[in-house]
Each structure stands twice: as C-alpha cells, then as structure tokens.
Amino acid sequence: MGVLPAVAGYNVCHISLVYGCHIVVILSGYLLAHPTHNEVHIMKKHALLFSAIATVALFSSAAFAAKSANVCQAKTYEMGLRYQQQSAEIAALQLQTYHFAQQRLAEILRHKKDHHKLAVVMDLDETILDNTALLVRDMQNCHDYTHWDTWSDWEVKGHPRLIPGAKAFIEYANRRGVNIFYVSDRYKKNKKYTMHTLKELGLPQVKDDHVLLYSTSKQQRREHIRKHYHIIMLMGDSLPDLSAIFKNKKGTHYNRELVEKNRKHFGRDWIVLPNAAYGAWTKAKLRAWHEQ
C-alpha cells in the first residue's frame, strides 16, 4: 500500500496486491479530509470489498505456492531423465558397457570347459529394460516417481524398451550355453506380466526358475542360484545388484569407499550400467567450491 501526498485537501489512497507476477489494483480512490455520512458509507463498502478480495487472493496465492513447490519437486529429476532417455552419450555408454561385458564373458569362457553350470545374473530395470517413459509421465504430472506407487501398473500395462546392447549380450551368453538369471525387485504378483514383457522383447531363458522377483533379498536369491550354479558375472545399475555389502544405510560416501576397496571386481565379474534417473545417490549432499 502507498499513500500519495495530499492534493488540494484530498488524500489519494492506492492499494495494490501483488499476485504471482501480476499487480492487481484493488482499490484506488479519493478520501475526503471531512467526509459526509454518505461518503463514509461508500468507503466502508469499499473496505469490505477489499477485505473479501484480499482474502480470496491470499488463499489463491497459498494454493499457487503449494502447487509451485510440488512442480518444483518433481522437476528436480528432469535433467537426469533427459540424460537417461534422450542423450546420445547414455546410449554410447550402454553399448560400450555391454560390448565390454561380452568381451569379458568370452575371456572367462575360454578358461571354462563346461558352461552348463555357469551363470550370469542380471538386474532388469535400467539394466535390460528402459522404464523412463513411466518416469517422464509421472514427472510431467508433478508426481514424485520415487514413491514407486505407479510402478505396479506399469509392470502390468507398460511397454518398456530395451537398453542398447542388452539383447545382443544376452543372446551371446545364451548361444555359449551360459545360464541367464533375471533377478529384479519387481513385484512378484506381476511376475506373469514381467515374463510376458521379456518374451515379447525376444529375450531367451525367460522361465519361471530364471526370473526371480521381489520376495527375499537379492543376496538371498543370489545364494539360491549359487547352490546349483557358478555365478561368473553380475550386472546392474545399482551397487546392491552386485553385492549385499552395498545394501547399508551409511550413505554414498561409505559406498564410495567400498567401491575403492572392491575395485578388483569392477570390469571383471561386476558390471555396472549408468542410471541418472534414480538411486540412493539422489539424496546425497553436494559439495561446492568455496574460493579462498
């Protein structure tokens, strides 16, 4: 509110409300130095009108702010999703990873005579299957997809794409007689739909005992496989896909230390694919440069 200087015995009262990026003039008028009874009545009516409009505007402003906060929260994933879904670099990294994994598998098999008891254990989501269409849909609807409350419906009705290089690698392992196990934390109740998706994408060895979905921990499922097979390679987009040591609540800094301590595994029997869309790292604190 701003009060202009008195002009010829009058005060000019100019009241404005800033709403969003718009300035709405609500009341602008002249207040007499000695108003009559009728003028006082008119000013009271204007005051009541202003009060009503201001109340509505304040509630609208609060709703607008709440919606903006929600939009902002969902939009925090946008850059990562753009990279994961649209960048040529991510496709190059995925192809590069699978090409290297195939070379490494060929090297391992050269030293193994009997392949029928060898196994490769692979995660599904963002390792073999590209689910970014669901994540983008949720973000555009201002919904935080890391609540995972839309995932079950996607497993039933969705049509994920293959990660570049995944099918060629899996087909190579299959031709060489290696057992392929799909170990994922997808819903067990949706197993028939997940198996249908994998078959529809033309992947081999999609059998009930080779598709192990969420029930026990991934480590327990891996140990179940080890009772009958020798696991020669583990692949995933998240470190717990490789070992239970990364399934902890000590934060990303601790896991980075574990990566360093276990560096001999990476590129040998542990293969990691990039995922910029989600993961434990999304809650990590960033480190800024502070100029001295």
UniProtKB/TrEMBL annotation:
Origin species: Celerinatantimonas diazotrophica
Keyword Ribonucleoprotein: no
GO cellular component: cell outer membrane
Pfam family, one: Acid_phosphat_B
Gene3D superfamilies, sorted: HAD superfamily/HAD-like (3.40.50.1000)
KW Protease (keyword) present: no
Database matches in SUPFAM superfamilies: HAD-like (SSF56784)
InterPro entries the UniProt entry points to: Acid_phosphat_B-like, HAD-like_sf, HAD_sf, Lipo_e_P4
Entry keyword set: Lipoprotein, Membrane, Signal, Transmembrane, Transmembrane helix
Transmembrane region(s): 15-34, 46-66
Protein origin, superkingdom: Bacteria
Protein name: 5'-nucleotidase (Lipoprotein e(P4) family)
